[in-house]
Amino acid sequence: MEPAAALFAALYAALECGEQHQRTALLLAPDAPFIRFIEVGYALRACLEDRRQHEYLLQRLRPHAGVIVGTLPPGLLPHSMLPRSPALPQFRPLEQISDAEVRDWLVQDAGMVYGELQQDELARYFAAIAPLLAPGGLMVDLGSGLGKVVMTAALSLPFQRCVGVELLAYRHQLALQRCQQLLALNRQQLQRLPQPLQRDQPLLLPGGASATLAHLLDLPQRLAFIEADMFTVDVRAATLVFLYSTCFGALMPALAHKLASELQPGALVSTTTYPLSHPAFRILHHYPAGTLAWTAVNLYQRYGEWDGSAPPATSYEPDAAEWEARMRAELAAR
């Protein structure tokens, strides 16, 4: 194996297995940032754990089936991030919680589901989009989790900068730790290359693009992670926005509006599973499930003029009767 190929192989290997990380329970305290989320989650879970309340729980969830990932909300499953501690005295029962609050909870709950593409899937993805990217530019991953896509992008393609945006503090901290481990390994691997190292030494990237050794020497300056809500982060300078959006179904209209409002013409956006239905974007490629990744991948380009108006709402509602049948089966099995 050529020295550069061995170097990249070692770096990629260091990014694997993030999907097996241990989820951290949310902090249960009156001033915790997710206290309202925890309150609604506790109310829903109390109904789930009381068989006499199952019909009422189904009644409350039925109108919002389109924003639930799967059948039973992931936040109510044993491995969820809801604490197991007793409820705070001020917490309300489900009867006192509005439908709007339940829907907001379900949307947030979907966003907390964690998943990441495998390295071979990312390799196919970056190989597919590489011909559409000019050297330089800013790549932004909204909902970056443990940072695998951001760090793989910085290794695979000649982006000037790659930035991950993650809302959950524990995932952000894990991304920072993994990034430091990657940078330490990068230094070690560079030291093993034939000396002396020259910044302008040619380097062929795994994605097929030509670069120089500065691509790896400057890796610390080319990577950044931000702990923030993706709706509050300015992406106007981005040339590629990556969305692992498989659990973002209910958020897609709002995300499309944000990206249309901020991105410059020519900027690219990729989504998984869900389309980006907005007049400010045209689809460049649709990769069906099983080609680049286990799920469908869509690549869009921001183009043309747009008057700023919101597009018609896109529905992702499942078949109501089918969802209810699955829900009743799951409740009966408990």
TrEMBL record:
Catalytic reaction annotation: L-lysyl(79)-[histone H3] + 3 S-adenosyl-L-methionine = N(6),N(6),N(6)-trimethyl-L-lysyl(79)-[histone H3] + 3 S-adenosyl-L-homocysteine + 3 H(+)
UniProt keyword terms in alphabetical order: Chromatin regulator
InterPro entries listed in its UniProt record: DOT1_dom, H3-K79_meTrfase, SAM-dependent_MTases_sf
Broad class of enzyme this protein falls into: transferase
EC number: 2.1.1.360
Protein biosynthesis found in the keyword field: no
Glycosyltransferase in keyword set: no
Domain spans labelled DOT1: 112-179
SUPFAM superfamilies: S-adenosyl-L-methionine-dependent methyltransferases (SSF53335)
Protein name: Histone-lysine N-methyltransferase, H3 lysine-79 specific
